Amino acid sequence: MASLETPICDFGWKALDFDLPGVDGKRYNLAAVKGEKGLLIMFICNHCPYVKAVRDRIIRDVNELAGYGVGAIAIMSNDPADYPEDSFENMARIAKEFNYPFPYVWDESQEIAKAYGAVCTPDFFGFNNNLELQYRGRLDASRKEAAPPDARRDLFEAMVQVAKTGQGPRDQIPSIGCSIKWRAE
Fold first, then answer.
1. Cα dist. 21→15, 27, 29, 75, 91 in Å?
2. Is residue 49 part of a domain?
3. For the Thioredoxin domain, which residue ranges apply (predicted)?
4. What is the pTM of this model?
């Protein structure tokens, strides 16, 4: 299982639209999930130890960011053929079990992950209200295990700044996680 870091933020890069099925039976696109002050797009999955370590923190931060007008969506792009834990059925189970406060959608073709340049799970893309990229960093200092409870909340602080000013912090620490499980071509 390869661990990868995300590239540095390409400030101003425009979010690309998508139309993906959610585990709740609905379809989602940018307009459906964008908040008044911004949008957080997360590439996550069910099996990755990096995601499992921060799942509760992601839920906490998304809930709090909603109060700042930031919408959120989680996209699962792994090929479940080799990772059955990432199947659509298991996505629905996990979303229900953890009461995800955001749509959890499946990028079955992997086209959206490729278009966004997603490389790992978790991979966070924070956009302002004009859907311009302002954050491409880590959630916090967590790795395969959760950071201490008092760890700096990098993603949360960055997205609050984006909501208030439209601009993300210039200094960002890359996210680290398991590589996206690409389908054999």
1. 18, 4, 9, 10, 11
2. yes
3. 9-144
4. 0.96
